[in-house]
């Protein structure tokens, strides 16, 4: 048994677990972070940081270094491939609402890297890679985590355990939290290319959701490459859609060119919408993907998880200074309705909008978007919601 028995145990060193650890370090609260992998993951996942998340990361002292590694992107758009018509949203309208009135296009592993570097020098955080949580036991006044490292088991004891171990959370599974919701039928195929779309498509933003005749695609720019979300054609299996020839055909539809595309990486993923009923059970709390998952459309999953970490840290601070464990329920009361009514529902709406195939319904949706951006008050209101500021304001009002 190791560590301060009063400490907080955090399971999972993704962006959410590490944001929580960084906040606890700032509050001088002891914690141990347990991460199954030997080193931080570098796979391509979240690529957008919304304004209020950047404001929070600034408080944690990592925003400047992150911004230096990414592309600050004041606009994003929904466009029609064939006509090049677009509805462009402009985040500079939020200049009085945030210190960062833009989206930052940057890979999530860069934030994880910055946190790991910072926390390796921390006084109150013990960060352990290569340590997998396998079991949790609660006693009257403690929680004990069994971890496996190099084939050996050891127990870490603490006052509270936070599961930030992602969509397939072991913590959630061990405690038997139900994770209700749906898995969407489509598979998204992510293709990464250094091709400079910005030099071939006029008026492109760094974030573009596009309707075309056969369906939809999106183009997200990151430093040095573009990430394209593509979908299998009608009648095509996932395996066929992952073939280089199929990827090439789809990229040629975005910009036709005589040379083949250079494709750096291909990855397929399914999308879900799920949430647990209560974020806490006894001495165990969930945050981030372990508690809720949504369509990446709108880029809100990781951002919402970091917002969870901030809200949860405030209640942990009260527990650390003697408050009853029940104060943690304010975290669920503040964050769960926002996850459900703002994050999951907006992501679902964004996904449905781009998956819409009926031309008449698309025209209606597009007209509505164009009217929204043409009206400054509606445009700003839309941005406050899609940038997750509205949700944070609402959460702050929940007593
Ligand atoms: C293709 C794609 C695009 C996305 N785009 C965006 C976007 O633009 N914006 C956005 O906000 N979100 C986006 N997301 C979602 C985002 O990636 C997740 O919401 C985010 O990673 C959640 O962070 P997390 O820390 O909760 O979990 P994770 O990042 O999943 O981290 C969990 C950690 O826990 C560890 N772990 C798991 N089990 C154990 C165990 N038993 N013991 C110890 N450690 C364990 C894992 O190894 C991992 O390091 C995207 C996701 C995908 C797949």
Structure description:
With about 400 residues, the protein is α+β, with helices and mostly antiparallel strands. It has twelve helices and 20 strands. The protein has helices at about 15-25, 50-60, 65-70, 110-120, 170-175, 240, 245-255, 300-320, 330-355, 360-375, 375-385, 390-395; strands at about 10, 30-35, 50, 70-75, 75-80, 85-90, 105, 125-130, 130-140, 145-150, 150-160, 160-165, 180-195, 205-210, 215-220, 225-230, 265-275, 280, 285, 290-295. The strands form four sheets. It has an eight-stranded mixed sheet, sandwiched between helices. It starts with 7 loop residues before the first strand and ends with a helix. Bound molecules: flavin-adenine dinucleotide (FAD). Flavin-adenine dinucleotide binds near residues 16, 35, 190, 296 and 302.
For this entry, give a set of tags.
12 helices, 399 residues, binds flavin-adenine dinucleotide, globular, alpha+beta, eight-stranded mixed beta sheet, single chain
Q: Whole-number radius of gyration? A: 22 Å
Largest sheet: 8 strands, mixed
Number of strands: 20
Q: List cofactors, ions and other ligands.
A: flavin-adenine dinucleotide
- Extract low-pLDDT stretches: none
Mean pLDDT: 96
Beta-strand level of the residues, as a percent range? Answer: 25-35%
The strand line-up of the biggest sheet is 6-5-14-15-16-13-17-20
Shape: globular
Helix fraction by DSSP (H/I, runs of at least 4):
25-40%
In whole angstroms, how far apart are the ends?
A: 38 Å
Question: Which class of secondary structure composition applies to the elements?
Answer: alpha+beta
Number of helices: 12
């Amino acid at each position: 048994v190791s560590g301060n028995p009063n400490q907080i145990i955090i399971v999972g060193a993704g962006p959410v677990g590490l944001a929580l650890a960084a906040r606890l370090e700032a509050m001088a609260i002891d914690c141990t972070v347990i991460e199954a992998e030997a080193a931080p993951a570098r796979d391509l996942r979240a690529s957008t940081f919304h304004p209020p998340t950047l404001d929070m990361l600034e408080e944690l002292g990592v925003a400047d270094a992150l911004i230096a590694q990414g592309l600050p992107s004041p606009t994003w758009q929904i466009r029609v491939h064939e006509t090049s018509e677009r509805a462009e949203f402009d985040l500079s309208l939020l200049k009085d609402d945030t210190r960062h009135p833009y989206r930052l296009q940057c890979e999530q592993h860069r934030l994880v890297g910055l946190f790991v570097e910072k926390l390796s020098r921390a006084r109150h955080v013990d960060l352990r890679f290569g340590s997998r949580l396998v079991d949790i036991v609660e006693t009257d006044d403690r929680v004990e985590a069994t971890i496996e490292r190099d084939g050996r088991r050891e127990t870490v004891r603490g006052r509270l355990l936070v599961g930030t171990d992602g969509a397939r959370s072991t913590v959630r599974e061990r405690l038997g939290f139900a994770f209700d919701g749906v898995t969407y039928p489509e598979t998204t195929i992510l293709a990464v290319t250094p091709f400079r779309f910005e030099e071939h498509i006029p008026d492109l933003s760094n974030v573009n959701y596009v309707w075309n005749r056969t369906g939809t695609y999106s183009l997200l720019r990151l430093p040095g490459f573009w990430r394209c979300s593509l979908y299998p054609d009608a009648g095509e299996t996932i395996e066929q859609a992952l073939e280089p020839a199929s990827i090439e055909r789809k990229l040629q539809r975005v910009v036709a060119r005589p040379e083949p595309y250079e494709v750096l990486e291909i990855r397929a993923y399914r999308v879900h919408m799920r949430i647990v009923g209560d974020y806490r059970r006894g001495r165990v709390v969930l945050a981030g993907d372990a508690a809720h998952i949504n369509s990446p459309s709108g880029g809100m999953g990781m951002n919402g998880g970091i917002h969870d970490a901030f809200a949860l840290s405030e209640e942990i601070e009260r527990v650390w200074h003697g408050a009853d464990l029940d104060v943690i329920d304010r975290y669920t009361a503040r964050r769960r309705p926002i996850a459900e009514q703002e994050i999951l529902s907006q992501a679902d709406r964004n996904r449905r909008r781009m998956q819409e195939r009926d031309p008449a319904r698309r025209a209606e949706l597009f007209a509505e978007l164009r009217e929204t951006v043409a009206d400054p008050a509606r445009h700003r209101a839309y941005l406050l919601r899609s940038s997750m500021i509205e949700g944070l304001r609402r959460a702050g009002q929940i007593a």
